[in-house]
Each structure stands twice: as structure tokens, then as C-alpha cells.
Amino acid sequence: MNVSIGDRLRYVRTKHDISQRELAKRTGIANSTISLIESNSTNPSVAALKRILAGIPICMAEFFTLEPRAEQVFYRPHEMLEIGKGNLSLKRIGNANYGRSLQMLKECYEPGADTGRVMLCHDGEEAGLVLSGVIEVTVGNERRLLKAGDSYYFDSRTPHRFRCVGPEACEIVSASTPPTF
After folding, report:
1. Mind listing the pLDDT tens digit of every residue in the chain (181 residues)?
2. Alpha-carbon distance 136 to 114, whole Å?
3. Residue 34 near residue 20, CB atoms below 8 Å
């Protein structure tokens, strides 16, 4: 089986229920670097990989010899991995999928929740459907208020941001490719 280091790292990290941020804290390696490795945008040095694996913990030999288990097909709400924090919930659908090329999230923004002042930007595409509430979505220089039934689709290399501006929580089901979490 020919599997990339990034896909293998993502599999091992999620198998141990560790977020990229948590792994970054444990290893002292930037979250953005771990993300770049997992998206196969860069390859780590042997020393960096060893440090990352120590944060999981898993040894190098086990990392390169493990075989992914059979894919889980169906998920109950409690089986989705929470990768958000505070008043922003991001639950990943398909949390144990090895080498996946699509990421789906159930997102819940409490009133005032925001992805941050610094706009997000990464390789790939994103699409989403607003299920409830009102969300302000900024993509490049465009800003729109979206409500239940509205949707979006954009090239995620364009800087973007999400902010709940309504008096109630906003729920979205989104997909992106390649996975960033």
C-alpha cells in the first residue's frame, strides 16, 4: 500500500483523538506546519517527524508499518470528533477515515462566534448549507449574510471568515477538499 506521510499522520492523530492544535502544543511544532504535512503540502524532516510522533505517542516503526482499519461508514452524533473550541463547535463527520480527500463538518456558531479576525486561507474548495440562524460569510472583498436554506461555494485560497451575527446559534453543514483538520 502506497500511503503518503501526511495521510498516515492524519490517520494516526485522529485515531488517538488528538487535534492538530493539541499535537502542536505537545511537540512545539507549529499547528500550521502539522496542517501542511497532513495536507501533503510539505514533508517533514526525519527529526521533525520523530518529534511529532513522540507527541502522539507512537514510534517510527509502528507509524510506517500500521495498516488502517476498515472504514467506518455510519456515525452517531457522539462519534463525531469535536475540533472547535469555545462558542464555535466543529464536529468532523468521518473522523476515522484514512487517506480521505473530502472533509465534512457540522458547524455550530453561538451568537457572536467568529472564526477569527485573521481571515482563513488554504488550498482547496469549500461549500456549505446553512441549516438555521444567520451567518456573515466574508470571501475576499465580498460579505454576505446567509440564513437557513442559503449556501456558499468558493475557492478556499481566497481569504475567508465566518461570524454568527444573529441572536440565535447558526448551524451549517460544510464540506471541503482537501481536508484541513
Report:
1. 456 788 889 888 888 889 999 999 999 999 899 989 988 888 899 999 999 999 998 888 888 887 766 667 888 888 788 888 889 998 888 765 556 778 899 999 999 999 988 999 988 899 999 999 999 999 999 999 999 999 999 999 999 999 999 899 999 999 998 877 7
2. 9
3. yes
What nine digits make up the cell of 63? 507509524
For residues 142 and 92, give the distance between their C-alpha atoms in angstroms, rounded to a whole number: 27
pTM of the model: 0.64
User: Quick check: 111 and 164 in contact, CB under 8 A?
Assistant: yes
CA distance 133 to 113: 12
71 backbone dihedrals φ, ψ, rounded to 5°: -65, 135
Residue 118: how many other CB atoms lie within 10 Å:
8
**Distance (Å, whole) CA 42 – CA 57:** 22
C-alpha cell at 109: 456558531
3-state secondary structure of 38: helix
Give the DSSP H/E element, type plus range, for residue 6: helix 5-15
